[in-house]
Amino acid sequence: MELLDKLAILADAAKYDAACTSSGVDRAGQKGGIGGAVSAGLCHSFAADGRCISLLKVLFTNSCIYDCKYCVNRRSNDTRRTAFTPRELAELTIQFYRRNYIEGLFLSSGIVKSPDYTCEQLIKTLTLLREEYHFFGYIHVKAIPGADDSLIQRLGLLADRMSVNIELPSQQGLQLLAPDKSKLAILHPMGLIQRKVNENSTDLVRYRHAPKFAPAGQSTQMIVGATPDSDYQILNLTQSLYRRFGLKRVFFSAYTPVQSDALLPALDTKPPLLREHRLYQADWLLRFYGFDASELLDERHPNFNPVVDPKCNWALNHMEQFPVEVNTAAYEMLLRVPGIGVKSAQRIVTARRSGSLDFAGLKKIGVVLKRAQYFVTCRGKPVEGLKITPDGAMRALISERSAAMLPQNQAEQLSLFDPPPTREDVIKCLTGQL
Amino acid sequence: MPDRPAVIYRYDGSFDGLLCCVFESYARRETPLDIRPADDPQAVLFPTHEVPTDADHAQRVFASLQKRISSEAQRQVQYAFLSCADDKALLIYRFIRLGLRHGARVMSMLTNDTVCAVDKAVRALLNERHHLLEFLRFSDFKGVLVATIEPKNFVLPLMQEHFCSRFPEERFLIYDKAHGMALIYRPYSAQIFSIEQLELPEADEYELAYRRLWKQYYNSIAIETRYNPRCRMGHMPKRFWGHMTEFEQEQRRLPHTAAGQVLPASETTDLSSPTRIK
């Protein structure tokens, strides 16, 4: 088979993997070699679906001995099968890398013959890249569940990041849809990687040149919407993965129906993109905004509000903590104001060092007030002339996507006599209505 | 210094020249109304003063930026000079004056018009640099890598370290068409030249094969049910597309190649053209 066809098949088979980041490791190039890495990662392109293309994301082969129902590469699926040779793939990676198309390689694979055999193929490819081509770019590799620990370790010494996909958020889902995989088989390599990364960091303190084990840590991914798990379960699982396994990232992948099966959502089901979006928003809140999963959802509210984002939802339910005074609030509290992100909060903290801020000043330093104005004061005063109407506030707070679903703005008769609605009215309306 | 006559400074357009304007203004105890490069065609009514460039004066001003303000401010000034802000000379001059008066605090005075404008210009510069580190595409011409860019800001000096560190054993050239400059690297030295025009030969079969592979990959990796052109455009503004391999039209007349067969046009899933997607 021509290389072009192989690439088409093996890229297509890998595209449902959400992770494509090249972040977490900073490495300058070295004489005699090629490549380096930037800790923030670089996205070399964006596909037509708006997702970043940072790495050459392919399967080594799309043949598989497993029969996971949600997967295009499952054994019983009638599809064209092919495989790269380690040399082909290494050469392709280098040639793409030289042209600045990619930051490196993201290598995953179907399971051929046995997990051990598959793992050896991956090791062969990465060894070629690292030792023969002297490639110092980014490599993300899937740990193959079920492979021998010593093989996983060798893989980890060649790669920057490793991942084991947790696939489905619950054991029941796994049993139903991926009968060949067990929770244990997935969590075992995850724990192994974590131990190795930790051991390695103490080794590095002792011996500066100790080989690095997956210096960019590990990540995982789960499919959302193939099983009936709630957002609350998913978010709790996410949080414990960050805390217990020290994961760098958890990715969510809205389930896109690829085959029909009685156990799966119907083929014409739209991928739950909004739900995936809300989960990512919440994931950000856990990682960068100091939120705890229990603040965002609980048993009584197990799913995210489709109309407002999780942070705004939290704020509306905790109005007693607002408004926040921009000039005195702690950084952590600024981060909790809807409409103020990490960058804005940092700029506020910087700018107020040299003088007190008013709303004009906020605007000037680039803080967008559309949403934040309902939750902040400057020098003790709210935005001058802020007309808090239920409709206006709601439109400002909800996302643009949901705004399209609301009835169009109607012309409003200004009245001299009706008292303007108070802040409490608006809050009541928002929390009640939403 | 309000009672001095209004004057406009002209400098030679170099960074040193601009620093000399700062020196001159302090030496003559006057505040210029504007600072323009000597080749600026704009006619002015006010008296102008040609500021000669003196390496020693420039060095004194440059050193004082770090000593009397901060090294962050010194870098900010260097970056601002590379930006495409229209009135950057005057902005930088005012920024330095503010800095010399307020010290290191100037970097946090973000509500000041001058500091804010400088900050904005520098952020635009660094953003564009970041975009180009990502979206720049090399082509291989007989072992030499060549890329063309058309940035608004003069980002070339800020790209040098990244690519030189990453490709130590390659020979490469990055041509900035907008500014008529080029970065040329051969192991292990780099230089930035002024260059009028760059004529490139036709790409050979070897290069075309990899371009085709990349386009194939680009189209295969997108999930059709998630087609989202607005999201793509938000992350990757269209002005960069012109020099990106994945958006280049296939040259029809070329024969099929060793690395792979070209699919007939009807079979290629071309997600870049919106008509193919419902």
Structure description:
The complex is a heterodimer of chains A (434) and B (278). By secondary structure, chain A is an alpha/beta fold. Chain A has two domains: 3-296, Alpha-Beta Barrel (TIM Barrel); 310-433, no CATH class. In chain A, 39% of the residues lie in helices and 9% in strands. Chain A contains 17 helices and ten strands. In chain A, strands 3-4-5-6-7-8 form a six-stranded parallel sheet. In chain A, strands 1-2 form a two-stranded antiparallel sheet. Chain A has a two-stranded parallel sheet with strand order 9-10. In chain A, β5 (138-142), α4 and β6 form a beta-alpha-beta unit. Chain B has 278 residues and is α/β, with parallel strands linked by helices. Chain B folds into three domains: 8-126, no CATH class; 146-194, no CATH class; 205-276, no CATH class. Chain B has helices at residues 15-27, 55-69, 71-82, 88-102, 113-135, 156-166, 205-220, 229-235; strands at 8-11, 34-37, 48-50, 139-141, 144-149, 171-176, 181-186, 189-194. In chain B, a hairpin with a 2-residue loop joins β7 (181-186) and β8. Chain B is elongated, with a radius of gyration of 24 Å. The model of chain B is unreliable at 252-278 (pLDDT under 50). The interface between A and B is large, with 58 and 61 residues.
Structural topology:
The complex is a heterodimer of chains A (434) and B (278).
Chain A: H1 3-12, E1 45-46, E2 52-53, E3 55-59, H2 86-98, E4 104-108, H3 115-132, E5 138-142, H4 149-158, E6 161-163, H5 171-177, H6 183-206, E7 218-224, H7 231-244, E8 249-254, H8 273-288, H9 293-296, H10 310-317, E9 324-325, H11 331-334, H12 342-351, H13 359-364, H14 369-372, E10 376-377, H15 390-397, H16 400-403, H17 423-433
Parallel strand pairs in A: 3-4, 4-5, 5-6, 6-7, 7-8, 9-10
Antiparallel strand pairs in A: 1-2
Helix pairs in contact in A: 2-3, 3-4, 4-6, 7-8
Chain B: E1 8-11, H1 15-27, E2 34-37, E3 48-50, H2 55-69, H3 71-82, H4 88-102, H5 113-135, E4 139-141, E5 144-149, H6 156-166, E6 171-176, E7 181-186, E8 189-194, H7 205-220, H8 229-235
Parallel strand pairs in B: 1-2, 1-3, 5-6
Antiparallel strand pairs in B: 4-5, 6-7, 7-8
Helix pairs in contact in B: 1-2, 1-4, 2-3, 3-4, 3-5, 4-5
